[in-house]
Amino acid sequence: METTYFAVAFLIGICALSTAIGFGLLGGKFLEACARQPEMAPTLQTKMFIIAGLLDAVPMIGVGIGMYMLFA
Q: Which residues form the V-ATPase proteolipid subunit C-like domain (predicted)?
């Protein structure tokens, strides 16, 4: 039982860490691209928000799997 708690905590922690790293890289690359080509900023911003939405799904899936492991 204690192993399950550790596995769930580890899973959720890794999901949060990977999402934070992904958002950091995404934001940095977006700022670099806007600095190089300011006229492309609206197009890049739209694509950045689409990728951010997909990137946000990672911790949600991790929490769902963790809750399944914990309560099933």
A: 6-69
Rounded-to-integer distance, Cα 37 and Cα 71, Å: 50
Residue 36 burial (CB count, 10 A): 8
Q: Which residues of 58-72 are buried (b: 16+ CB within 10 A; e: fewer)?
A: ebeebeeebeeeeee
Superfamily of domain 2-71: F1F0 ATP synthase subunit C (1.20.20.10)
State mean pLDDT over 7-27: 94
Q: Would you please indicate which residues are annotated as catalytic (active-site) residues?
A: 56
Task: Tell me the pLDDT band of 72, cut-offs 50, 70 and 90.
Answer: confident
Distances (CA, A) of 69 to 8, 10, 17: 7, 12, 20
